[in-house]
Amino acid sequence: MARVFVYGTLKKGQPNYKYMINTAKGLAKFQGRGRTVEKYPLVIAGKYNIPYMLNIPGTGHQVAGEIYSVDDQMLQFLDEFEGCPDMYQRTLMRIEVVEWEGKGGTGEARAAAEGVVECFVYSTMTYPPEWVGLPYHDSYDSSGKHGLSYVLRESR
C-alpha cells in the first residue's frame, strides 16, 4: 500500500471523489486530513477550472487535503487519471497530519504521533508561466467563493 495526498477534485464532497470509492479502480482507504509541510501555489487554471499544485516549494500556502492509503491498482489508476507524467508528476512530499483516522499498525501510529508522513502527491512542473500569477489557494472546493466550478470530463 502507498500513501497518497489529494488536494483537489478527488477529496470527499468533490466532483471526482467517486473514483476514490470505486473499488473496480482499486482500493483507497481514507487515513485522515493533512496539509503540506512546505508552501506551494495551488491554482485553478485552464478552461476546465482544474486545480493544480505547482511544484514551486516555498511559494504560496500550506495546501490542505486528505491522506489515503491505496493499493497498486488504485495508484496505477491515479497515474492514468492525473495524466502522469505529462500533466502531473507524482512525487513524495512531507504532509503534516491535521487529523488522523487510521487505526493501522505501530508504524502509522508513530507517524501520526510525530505529525508528519510522506505521501505521493500529484503536482506539476509543466505549466504555462502565467499560472504563477494566478491567485493561490490554501484549500480547494469546486464550488468555492472563487466561482471557478470544475468542468467534469464527461461534460468537456
Automatic annotation (TrEMBL):
GO terms for molecular function: gamma-glutamylaminecyclotransferase activity; transferase activity. Residues 4-105 form the Gamma-glutamylcyclotransferase AIG2-like domain. The active site is at E82. GO terms for biological process: modified amino acid catabolic process. The keyword Transferase applies. Coiled coil: none annotated. SUPFAM superfamilies: Gamma-glutamyl cyclotransferase-like. Keywords: Lyase, Transferase. It catalyses: epsilon-(gamma-L-glutamyl)-L-lysine = 5-oxo-L-proline + L-lysine. The keyword Transferase applies. Its EC number is 4.3.2.8. InterPro entries: AIG2-like_dom (IPR009288), GGACT (IPR039126), GGCT-like (IPR013024), GGCT-like_sf (IPR036568). GO terms for cellular component: cytosol. Belongs to the gamma-glutamylcyclotransferase family. Catalyzes the formation of 5-oxo-L-proline from L-gamma-glutamyl-L-epsilon-lysine. This is Gamma-glutamylaminecyclotransferase. It comes from Psophia crepitans (common trumpeter).
